[in-house]
Amino acid sequence: MERFEFNYPAAKPLAGRAEAGVVGSGDLEALYEPDTANTLKIIVTTSVDGSHTLWQNFFNRLNALRELPAGHLDINDFGATPGVARLRIEQVFEEAEHAN
After folding, report:
1. Helix (H, G, I), strand (E, B) or coil at 10
2. Which tens digit of pLDDT belongs to each residue from 21-31?
3. Could you give the dihedral angle defined by the CA atoms of residues 59, 63, 66 and 71, in that order, rounded to the nearest 10 degrees?
4. Residue 99 has what pLDDT?
5. Quick one: 15 exposed, middle or buried, by C-beta within 10 A (0-12, 13-18, 19+)?
6. Half-sphere CA count of 90, side-chain side, radius 13 A
7. CB 29 within 8 A of CB 75
8. How far is CA 53 from the centre of its chain?
9. What is the pTM of this model?
10. Residue 64 lies in domain
11. Which candidate, 24, 42, 19, places its Cα nearest to that of 80?
12. Which end of the chain is more exposed for a tag (fewer CB within 10 A), N or C?
């Protein structure tokens, strides 16, 4: 298991907390919690050794494609493909945006 931390400049926080996905064979869990800081702090815990550069490139690309929300994003990965990772992260952001 490896653990990485990334920080990106961020816009306003989303409305509430959210969770998407389930850690399991080939999947990923994303948990978002809003914060008033102008940063999105990302913690990735993964079963895939040596994947720091892949995750960094993934988040650099996501940051270039969309405005990231302020807060904390915890990723628990069990070998998810980049497509599944993007889906789970978009799901957790959408759910948090509409939270009450």
Report:
1. coil
2. 988 767 899 99
3. 80
4. 84
5. middle
6. 10
7. yes
8. 15
9. 0.94
10. 2-97
11. 24
12. C
